[in-house]
Amino acid sequence: MTKSALISGASRGIGLGIATRLAQQGYSLTITARDADRLEAVAAELRAAGAPEVVPVAADMADEDGVARVLGAHADRFTTMSALILNAGVGTAGTLAESSMRRFDKTIAVNLRAPIQLIQGALPLLRAGAAADPDRGAKVVALSSITGVYAEAGLAVYGAAKAALISLLTTLNAEESANGVTATAIAPGYVDTDMSAWVHDQVPPHQMLAVNDIVEMTDALLRLSPRAVVPSIIMSRAGTDGYRA
Ligand SMILES: NC(=O)c1ccc[n+]([C@@H]2O[C@H](COP(=O)([O-])OP(=O)(O)OC[C@H]3O[C@@H](n4cnc5c(N)ncnc54)[C@H](OP(=O)(O)O)[C@@H]3O)[C@@H](O)[C@H]2O)c1
Question: Whose CA is nearest to atom 47 of ligand 1?
């Protein structure tokens, strides 16, 4: 069977790394991000890398209608889903004292509300994907953060959203793993992408996790049998005490 995956935030960074690996493995892909031009260019690259079909859908994950369009585009083209990669996320630093409710709402919308909507909307396709591939089942992989596990000053809102994501996936496993749909939240420290560039004066890129580290971990998770449930994985940076972003 042709496997298919839906990947949010697939145009740059970790999402692009995962999308490229899945394209090389022959997955068909539905990809989304806000910048439509960049997404089209990435779609062409992914086709060249081996994806039989790539469906690019530009959307803002803070917009419920946008998330619905992404789900609809996948369902229009594919009858199953082998993997749902909940990767799009926003992160702004700021103490609790100075965080605005506007920032809180936007962070929760992209980092938590959209994943809930994507999981709900994709579940029928994921169950069908699991039934069609009993050796692998269907997988949900979400990019949480180490700050969702070990809270850190200055990352309160981001950390709270990422902690909620871990809880959400644990519940998903409780409800759906018997149907062959299993989920993992990956919680890394700083990864060398655009998102972490703001912290380069304190943490240089060579001390960060590499995008490929997250890609390798995701690849391994997608190859597990549906009998194995891995609710969360913490990936710390070497040279730290393991409890810091
Ligand atoms: N980098 C790190 O240090 C780190 C550490 C731990 C966890 N994470 C998590 O890993 C995930 C990926 O991070 P990254 O470092 O790869 O980020 P990135 O390099 O900034 O890329 C983010 C991707 O998400 C898309 N995106 C951003 N906001 C969006 C929105 N509102 N709606 C739709 N798409 C949106 C971006 O495209 P557009 O801008 O075109 O929309 C881009 O494709 C995030 O969930 C992040 O929280 C990152």
Answer: 89
Ligand 1 atom closest to 195 (CA): 20
211 Cα: distance to centroid of ligand 1 (angstroms): 12
Determine whether the shortest distance from the Cβ of 148 to ligand 1 is under 6 A.
no
Q: pLDDT by residue (tens digit) across 15-72?
A: 999 999 999 999 999 999 999 999 999 999 999 999 999 999 999 999 999 999 999 9
Residue 240 counted as domain residue: no
Count structural domains, the chain: 1
The protein residue whose alpha carbon is closest to atom 23 in ligand 1 is 9
Mean pLDDT value of segment 143-147: 97
The overall average pLDDT reported for the chain is 97
- DSSP per residue, the chain: ---EEEEETTTSHHHHHHHHHHHHTT-EEEEEES-HHHHHHHHHHHHHHT-S-EEEEE--TT-HHHHHHHHHHHHHH-S--SEEEE-------B-GGG--HHHHHHHHIIIIIHHHHHHHHHHHHHHHHHHH-TTT-EEEEEE--GGGTS--TTBHHHHHHHHHHHHHHHHHHHHHGGGTEEEEEEEES-BSSGGGGGGTTTS-GGGSBPHHHHHHHHHHHHTS-TT----EEEEPPTTS-SS--
Domain containing residue 77: CATH number:
3.40.50.720
**pLDDT tens digits along 183-193:** 999 999 999 99
Asked whether residue 207 is domain-assigned, the answer is yes
Residue 37 CB–ligand 1 contact under 6 Å: no
Closest atom of ligand 1 relative to the 88 alpha carbon = 24
